[in-house]
Write a structure and sequence with these properties.
2% helix; mainly beta
Length: 179
């Protein structure tokens, strides 16, 4: 498998085991396979250029954070029997070799990570319907990393649903430790 050359941008940490390179057009990435990935603001559905969870230095207990953005995947009609996977490939990880390197890895200290979660729907969701919190955490999928020792045993949890209308909307959350 050849990895996509998408850089270390926060946004497309997920890009999937699709071969080839992506064309970038603002908030939109077009893959040679015909899959289009776009980033939008959850608040007003306008185009967004990057994903940002805001200030991650919080006081107190671990905090659940919704991303203020969502991803829209549009795929060709012949994708009914194909898979799109969401995972990280944190090759710069410098923590324990058997440690969990899933999610976002600190650039300053590549031994620390922040877990990421995702949830997919066949239609756009309202701001009030997307809640990542202690009560809903178990209904969200953890974004795993290819370098985790248990990745191959959990690979089925990385598959993004492919819906009949050829669109999948992905919402993200993070669990931030206090700073």
């Amino acid at each position: 498998m050849r990895r996509n050359s998408l850089g270390k941008s926060f946004l497309f940490f997920l890009l999937l085991c699709l071969c080839g390179s992506a064309q970038v057009h603002g908030h939109r990435k077009v893959l040679p396979s015909g899959v289009v990935i776009e980033l939008f603001n959850l608040k007003d559905n306008s185009s967004a250029s990057n994903l940002n969870f805001g200030n991650t230095v919080l006081k107190g207990a671990r905090r659940h954070r919704n991303a203020p953005n969502y991803l829209k995947f549009t795929y060709p009609a012949d994708w009914a029997n194909k898979e799109i996977r969401i995972f990280t490939d944190n090759s710069d990880w410098q923590g324990p070799t058997n440690g969990d390197r899933s999610g976002l890895v600190s650039v300053a200290t590549p031994t620390h990570n922040i877990p990421l979660y995702w949830k997919a729907f066949p239609t756009k969701q309202s701001v009030s319907s997307i809640q990542f919190d202690p009560a809903t955490e178990s209904s969200w999928n953890v974004i795993l990393d290819t370098g985790n020792s248990d990745f191959s045993g959990k690979i089925s949890s990385t598959v993004l649903p492919v819906y009949p209308d050829r669109e999948t909307y992905v919402y993200l959350g993070s669990l931030v430790n206090p700073g």
